[in-house]
Design a protein that fits this description.
Blueprint: H1 7-26, H2 31-38, H3 42-54, H4 65-80, E1 84-88, H5 95-109, E2 116-119, H6 123-130, E3 141-144, H7 158-169, E4 172-173, H8 185-192, H9 195-205, E5 209-213, E6 215-216, H10 232-240, E7 243-247, E8 250-253, E9 258-259, H11 262-265, H12 272-275, E10 281-284, H13 291-299, E11 305-309, H14 310-319
Parallel strand pairs: 1-11, 2-3, 2-5, 3-4, 5-10, 10-11
Antiparallel strand pairs: 6-7, 7-8, 8-9
Amino acid sequence: MFSSESPVNDRKHFELLLTVARRYYLDDAKQSEIAEEIGYSRVTVSRLLAEAKRCGMVHIEISHPHERLATLEQQISSSYRIKEVRVSAASATNTESTTGKLAAELLLTHCSSRSTIAISNGRAVAATVAQLPRHHWISSCVVPILGMTGSELPFIDSPELCRNMAKRLGGNYWTLPVPLVFETELSARAMRQEPSVSRTLDLAARADAALVGVGSVKESGSSPILRKWITQNIQREVRKKHAVAHLCGHYIDAKGNHVDTTLCQRTVCLEPAQLRNIPFVVAIAYGEEKVDALHAILTGRYADALVTDEYTALALIENYNLS
């Protein structure tokens, strides 16, 4: 590379190459500026830069965090054959709001000023609603997928979420002012046949788009708004039937099949199979405890799009050997 016969000249040339390369690549100096500083022509500076690259002084790497996330999104999208995936960066300071913003942006790209949007409940859905930009979609409509949980956290329950989303979109909303779970199967069946309830669920089934949260049956991932109904008998039943996910009031097993439980029979909500008929369903969930649940609902084709965070996406890929 350098002549051993002229060590002094070699060293000076070596230092010149370093100076020129640092000024150009690290300081963003123009070649004409460098030429004036070192007393050479601009053409010589260009040759020195080429030599610095040729002899290995300069290593150029082009990358961006979004490229890494895009790779994860593509892996999940192609493996589950779903339309779109959005993954928030692990470096995000607030996963809830960052992921919610991605879900809000994705949902709106598939909606218009006249869209009917069906939504479930929970923290992730609430985070998405909170990130929706203001619109003046006076002909839009927000409709619930399920009844009320009567949660101590009303901002994640369906009536409040429907109101808040409609307020942000500038449109209308429907509510389902009945409990999500009834004491008996007979009471739930009777309530589903009530005109106001059946009309609301029918409108949800015919929505243009939907936003749903995904629950886990693991104790660490179970929704606090459902725990009051999940008795020990229900837990035993769910384990016996190998359910791993909770979606809009129903249980799903690892193969994506709807698991019919006594709790489901007492629930007032949209049937899981009806989600498949909605043109664009966005599922949002994140956290290690949600990985198996996400695999189940994506395998069952209940969602057309997934929004999650980087840690969950990586765990999903690694746990299920997605390529």
